[in-house]
Each structure stands twice: as C-alpha cells, then as structure tokens.
Design brief:
Blueprint: E1 2-10, E2 13-15, E3 19-20, E4 24-29, H1 35-49, E5 83-91, E6 98-101, E7 108-111, E8 113-123, E9 126-136, E10 140-148, E11 151-158, E12 176-177, E13 181-182, H2 184-187, H3 196-208, E14 210-213, E15 224-225, H4 241-247, H5 265-275, E16 281-286, E17 292-298, E18 306-307, H6 313-327, E19 333-337, H7 345-362, E20 365-369, H8 373-384, E21 393-401, E22 404-409, H9 429-450
Parallel strand pairs: 4-20, 4-21, 14-19, 19-20
Antiparallel strand pairs: 1-2, 1-3, 1-5, 5-8, 6-7, 8-9, 9-10, 10-11, 12-13, 15-17, 16-17, 17-18, 21-22
Helix pairs in contact: 1-3, 4-6, 5-6, 7-8
Length: 451
C-alpha cells in the first residue's frame, strides 16, 4: 500500500509537498487542475518498471503502448525547469520481509516498509538520473549520486554503520539503471550488499501490484471471445473485464471471510449489480461449445433476459470497475479515473460502498480522481454512520493558481464533515439556484405587468 507520494517540477506541479495516501484516496477539482497528473506520476513509474530497457531512465509511453503517453521527458517538466523529482513510500506485502545484514553483527535488519526518491535531469537530448535513494526511517539508507561525466558514488548505512569495502577493491565505474536501479558494478562496491538488487525487486513488485482503469471504458459487445487465458487486470479500457470474470468466476474474493456462495467472484459481481439497482440478474454463458460468450441480464425479476448491449450503457461502464476491484490480488492498489462516468447519481453514490467493501475485506487500496459529489457524499455518510473511519480516507482538492497546480488537504472529521470545504468545490450550486429563482421571479413580474 502506498503511504505517501510527492513530486517536484512535473507537468503543472512545481511541487506537491508530502501527500498522505490512505486506503481510500480521492482527488477532486476542476478540469485541468492537475488531478490526473498526480496519478500519472505513479503510472509513469509503473511503465518504467515494466520496460525491458534498463538504460531507459523514464518510459514516458507512446500512442500504441503504455498506461500514459506523455511525450519526451523534457516536455513533462514544469515551466523552464530541467529537473524533476519523484518520491514514494509504501508498505511491503511480501513475506518474509526484506532482510538487510547489519555490518559486523550476526543479525539482520527487517524491512517492512520502504521510501524511495529520484531526481531526474531532462534536457532536450540528455536525460539522466542525478540521484536515487532508498531508505527506511533512521535505520537504513542507500543513496547513489551523479558526480559529473556520468560518474556515480554510492553510500549505504545500516543502523548508522557503513558496510565494509572489499580489500584490494578495483576502481569501478557504477551507474544508475532506469530511474530506480543499480548497475552490477554498484553491487561490488561493498561487501555483502547483494540485497541492493532486492530493493529494485521490491520496487518492481509493488508497482506490479498497481492496477489502472481509465475513464473511457469500451462499449459492450454482443459476443466476447475467451480462450482460457488469465489476464492480470481488466485492461486500460475494461476490454478484458469479461475474460477476467471468466478466468476467476469461481474463485473466492475474500480470503478467510464470508464462507458463503457470495464469496465467489461472479456471484459478488451479480450481487453488486442488484444492490446498485442496475439489474436483477447477471449471467455470462457460452454460445454452443465455442470460445464465444455472451452476457445476459434482467432489468427486473419480471423482465426477459437481455444482452448487455441492450441494457443501456451504465452496466457496461460499471462492470469493469466491479470486476477489477474483486479480481486483483488482495493487497493491490487500484487507480481509477472518473469511475462515475455515464452512471446515474445513485450508482455513483453506491460506488463508495463498493470501495469500502474491498478496502475493508480485501485490503485493496483505491486511488481515484473524480468529479462526483454523490460518491463523496456517500463516503461522508458512511463515516458519520461509523461504517468507515475518517483516518482511512485522504481527500484532496486540486486547483490552478498563477499558472501552477496547488493541492489542499480536506479536513475530514469523524462525523464525515469537511471543515475546510473550498469555494465552488462542485461548482456554484447555490448561485445557480439563486439566479434561477431571480430569473423566474422577474419573468412572473413581467407577465403580471403585461396582463
């Protein structure tokens, strides 16, 4: 689970300061206020970690591939800046935790959480890592810094002790790999520091457990083809949602919780469609003996079964969200951009209950960017009802000021109230009501005078 992020000189952000990440983290604000950029930073690091090119500092994506397509590295720096930095902190889900040998002691330091930061210089034709660092509070740190001419130094401290260097150590020219890794030469600088490679694996493994669903989901189809493959997620546009559902339809979605039939993936999805008042039944069935499947639903108990293509767009838009939430492994993090698109206000509100369920019972972290007042109001209600803890939510308001994005942390108390509600948070609703009342009153007066 991500605990904190920060960045400087990225897109419209000069700096964010430390941003606390909770099990449910929401970014709200007007269009082009920088909300998406906060999540794009994580997706940028994810697709860099998944790149096969270890010499590529940042994989900024392309039209054909990647979670984000940001252009060249120097195009995503803020203003005239030539350097940007990213920082993330997270808890390790791996068992056993990372073990770091303590110099001159017969024991290890156990690492159950990590922080990472990197500074990247992005000039027109020269992109390089200026520095990178991993650390855990005051117990452990490893830092690599560029000293010019592509030369790097490395320093490691474990419980304030520096590991020994090999005797007769030859001079080595080390370098950074991608924006978070160490070359083989860096591992030879000290004795017994092969665990540095484990830091890279911990970084990659955590971002492997980060899943993303974009705001524009694919339209439903009359037929879906599935040949038995098991996708890792539902696709950027939800195009693999039915394949994922078929691959895991009979699997438990709660580990050690809810032993009933409602603990199965397909059953849980069907139940949520009922709870959200989108359908009274849901079924994915094969067409003859082929690899083709169709999705059938009933709007009400007395309605005939209907193909998903004939049910309206709401079901097809919410289905990838539901499948992703219950399909990903427990302990995963999900990024959702505008999950409320094309959904009725009551369904938007119901999404908050979906997120609370998977957070509490599947240990899944939800990071979302949204314009939905209804989703937020349902979350506030559940906090007031004590169904969810205010400390487990981190909400932020993004706005553009003087040409740069600014972030305000919303003060959410134990009663679900936001103490520092920004002006025009969801537009000027009161102003619209007053203007409509005044306009209506004026017309009535004109009609009365005319008669």
């Amino acid at each position: 689970m991500f605990k904190q992020i920060s960045m400087t000189n990225f897109k419209s952000w000069r700096e964010t300061g430390p941003v606390r990440m909770a099990p449910l983290t929401g970014f709200f604000g007007a269009n082009s206020s920088g909300k998406s950029s906060l999540l794009q930073m994580l997706l940028l690091l994810k697709q860099t970690a998944e790149s096969n090119d270890r010499n590529l500092v940042l994989n900024t994506g392309s039209i054909q591939t990647g979670y984000v397509n940001l252009g060249t590295a120097h195009e995503i720096t803020f203003g005239d800046a030539t350097a940007m930095s990213f920082s993330v902190a997270w808890t390790l889900n791996s068992k056993p935790e990372l073990a770091i040998p303590i110099p001159d002691e017969p024991r290890n330091l156990t690492i159950d959480s990590l922080s990472f930061e990197t500074e990247i210089h992005a000039e027109t034709k020269n992109v390089y890592v200026k520095s990178l660092k991993y650390w855990q509070e005051e117990n452990f740190s490893v830092a690599m810094d560029r000293k010019g001419n592509n030369r790097y130094t490395i320093r490691v401290y474990v419980n304030d002790s520096e590991p020994r260097r090999p005797s007769h150590r030859p001079r080595v020219l080390m370098r950074a790999e991608k924006c978070y890794g160490f070359s083989d030469e860096a591992l030879l600088y000290y004795q017994d520091t092969s665990y540095l490679r484990s830091l890279e694996f911990a970084f990659e493994r955590h971002f492997q457990n980060l899943h993303y669903l974009g705001p524009l989901r694919e339209y439903p189809q009359r037929e879906y083809r599935w040949g038995g493959e098991r996708p890792t997620n539902v696709g950027l546009k939800g195009e693999r949602a039915i394949s994922a559902l078929l691959a895991g339809k009979s699997e438990k979605v709660y580990d050690g919780y809810r032993k009933s039939k409602g603990n199965r993936l397909e059953t849980r999805i069907a139940q949520w469609l009922v709870d959200l008042d989108l359908a009274s039944s849901f079924l994915v069935e094969p067409i003859d003996d082929s690899t083709l499947y169709r999705v059938l639903l009933k709007r009400t108990d007395n309605s005939p079964e209907t193909l998903i293509t004939d049910m309206g767009i709401g079901v097809s838009q919410v289905l990838p969200v539901l499948v992703l939430c219950y399909y990903v492994p427990e302990g995963s993090t999900i990024i959702l951009e505008q999950p409320e698109l094309h959904l009725h206000p009551s369904v938007q509100a119901g999404l908050a209950d979906v997120f609370i369920d998977v957070i509490k019972h599947r240990n899944v972290q939800i990071l979302l960017e949204s314009h939905s007042e209804h989703l937020l109001k349902r979350l506030q209600r559940r906090i007031a009802e004590e169904s969810y803890q205010s400390d487990d939510a981190a909400l932020y308001f993004c706005e553009m000021r003087n040409g740069e994005s600014k972030l305000t942390s919303l003060e959410l108390d134990m009663f679900g109230e936001i103490r520092n509600w920004p002006d025009d948070f969801f537009g000027d609703l009161l102003g619209e009501m007053v203007a409509a009342f005044d306009a209506g009153l004026e017309r009535k007066q004109l009609q009365a005078n005319g008669s």
